[in-house]
Design goal:
The complex is a heterodimer of chains A (111) and B (380). With 111 residues, chain A is mainly α. Chain A has 2 helices and 3 strands, in the order H-E-E-H-E. In chain A, strands 1-2-3 form a 3-stranded mixed beta sheet, with no helix packed on it. The model of chain B has no long low-confidence stretch (mean pLDDT 91). Chain B has a domain of 265 residues. Helices cover 73% and strands 0% of the residues of chain B. The longest helix of chain B has 31 residues. Classes of the chains: A mainly alpha (111), B mainly alpha (380). At the A-B interface, helix 1 of A face helix 8, helix 9, helix 15 and helix 21 of B.
Chain lengths: 111, 380
């Protein structure tokens, strides 16, 4: 093999290495984007599944939570409960003093 | 019956290996002792250099016949049978399985552009190939010599055992010795080719890579690389299988075996039998010195290739990439990445380049396997 031929083989060889690794780089990038979307979609679903369901729609639970006055908290701490009550009051434009909460329960999954 | 002490001693001497030992074999045993010294005292890649060195010693013991092939009347030597694992490309592939199980490709997935640096750091392979051709080596031999620049022992052994098995001992010893010398070989070129300002560059923290991405990655790499270069499927396939063991999280026993017991056992077989190919009449030739010199040239140019692309990325990104991570594109995991970290911290004590350099470092493993696949397709 002549030196000129070896030069040609080398250029071609380096080109192949770059081509394969650039292709891989591109595919990793695409993979990250697609999996990023999937993860975000799953997160959105997970967040949606934590929606509060009106107490009336729920079957009566065994008394496994603790009470704060007449309000039962199941799987929800006091701070979160206060926040939820404040949000509902704000959204419905009903003063907190006129609202009566019986139970606030965290739901993992709707269906 | 008369007893003659002199004649008895003479008989023992004449039937011993000492009587038939050539000066070349004695010299090879001396070389083996030097290698054992380097492995134990200087700690130059001892995990491989020690078995290689002892293999050299065993293969050059006259009459022992450890590497003798079987004949009609006798079975072959122990190392002859163990060597079939090298000859058939089994050991390098199994070593890659273990490497895959030990490697975190997260930094590479977080910054896919690391792959460019892993590609550029294969430059030395082709420079050494051209120079080897100019020195009169046959193309298959030149390709085997060039692969030393990939700084990847199993890949070098895999390719050489298929293209030029007679050069295997010189190439394996050169490859592992230079890998051990990376902390001495790379830094002068890293400082020569970069400015202080470039070396001081602090890089942004890498994003977190999800488990799903890490699981999908080995599947993508296997499909793409093995479809493009089927000849390198044993190496890449095993590398990625090992990595899938690691990332899947469901086969902890297999993962643990691949990265500990299996790789250790195979390393013993691989090192000893590769060393045992270094018999005097093959090893003691001027070509060996040429191979050792060309190996050094390959390492230097691979380092330079990575650094130059690192500098280009520094310019293109407006100073966001530290060019020092380019030299880690030679595979030698994780030694080359550590050198980048050390040099980066010398320039700026607040610099932490290790994780950034691991990306090009593991990309170099894939890059050198791809380069080997190309050379195998050309000259195999």
């Amino acid at each position: 093999m002549s030196i000129a031929d070896s030069l040609l083989v080398s250029v071609l060889g380096l080109f192949v290495v770059f081509l394969v690794l650039i292709l891989l780089s591109f595919l990793i990038h695409i993979q990250s984007i697609i999996l990023g979307y999937i993860t975000a979609y799953q997160q959105r679903n997970a967040e949606a599944s934590h929606t509060i369901i009106p107490v009336e729609d729920q079957p009566e639970e065994a008394d496994q939570g603790w009470t704060a006055g007449e309000l039962k908290l199941i799987g929800v701490d006091e701070k979160t409960a206060a926040m939820i009550m404040a949000i509902i009051s704000d959204e419905t434009q009903i003063p907190l003093s006129e609202l009566q909460f019986k139970k606030i329960k965290a739901i993992d999954q709707i269906n | 019956m008369s007893f003659s002490f002199y004649e008895t001693m003479l008989k023992i001497w004449n039937t011993s290996a000492f009587a038939v030992m050539t000066w070349q074999e004695a010299l090879m045993i001396a070389v083996a002792c030097v290698l054992i010294y380097l492995a134990i005292v200087k700690k130059y890649e001892p995990l491989l250099l020690l078995p290689i060195a002892f293999g050299v010693l065993l293969a050059n013991l006259p009459l022992a016949g450890l590497m003798s092939p079987p004949t009609e009347n006798a079975v072959g030597g122990l190392l002859y049978y163990l060597y079939q694992g090298v000859k058939l490309g089994i050991y390098p592939s199994l070593i890659f399985l273990g490497i895959g199980a030990m490697t975190d490709f997260g930094p590479l997935i977080a910054r896919p552009s690391s792959l460019f640096l892993g590609a550029a750091a294969q430059l030395g392979i082709y420079i050494a190939f051209i120079v080897a051709i100019a020195l009169g080596f046959a193309p298959n031999e030149a390709a085997s010599i060039g692969i030393i620049g990939g700084a990847d022992g199993p890949t070098a052994i895999f390719l050489t055992s298929k293209l030029a098995p007679e050069l295997l001992p010189a190439i394996a010893i050169a490859a592992y010795s230079y890998m051990a010398l990376i902390p001495l070989i790379q830094p002068p070129f890293m400082r020569l080719l970069t400015t202080k300002k470039e070396r001081e560059t602090k890089m942004e923290q890498l994003r977190e890579v999800s488990k799903l991405e890490k699981i999908v990655f080995p599947v993508i790499v296997t499909v793409v690389v093995c479809m493009l270069l089927p000849s390198v499927a044993p190496l890449i396939g095993m590398l990625m299988l090992g990595n899938l063991f690691r990332e899947s999280g469901v086969v902890e026993r297999l993962n643990e075996t691949a990265q500990n017991a299996l790789i250790n056992i195979v390393t013993i077989f691989l090192g000893t039998t590769v060393g045992a190919t270094a018999v005097a009449d093959i090893f003691l030739r001027p070509e060996t010195l040429k191979i050792i010199a060309l190996g050094l040239l390959a390492f230097i140019f691979s380092t330079i290739g990575g650094l130059l692309l690192g500098k280009l990325m520094y310019l293109v990104t407006g100073g966001k990439v530290n060019p020092l991570i380019g030299s880690a594109g030679v595979s030698a995991v994780p030694m080359a990445a550590r050198v980048s970290q050390i040099e980066g911290q010398k320039a700026n004590p607040e610099n932490f380049l290790l994780m950034h350099a691991m990306g090009p470092n593991v990309a170099g493993v894939i890059g050198s396997a791809v380069a080997a696949g190309f050379l195998l397709a050309m000259f195999g």
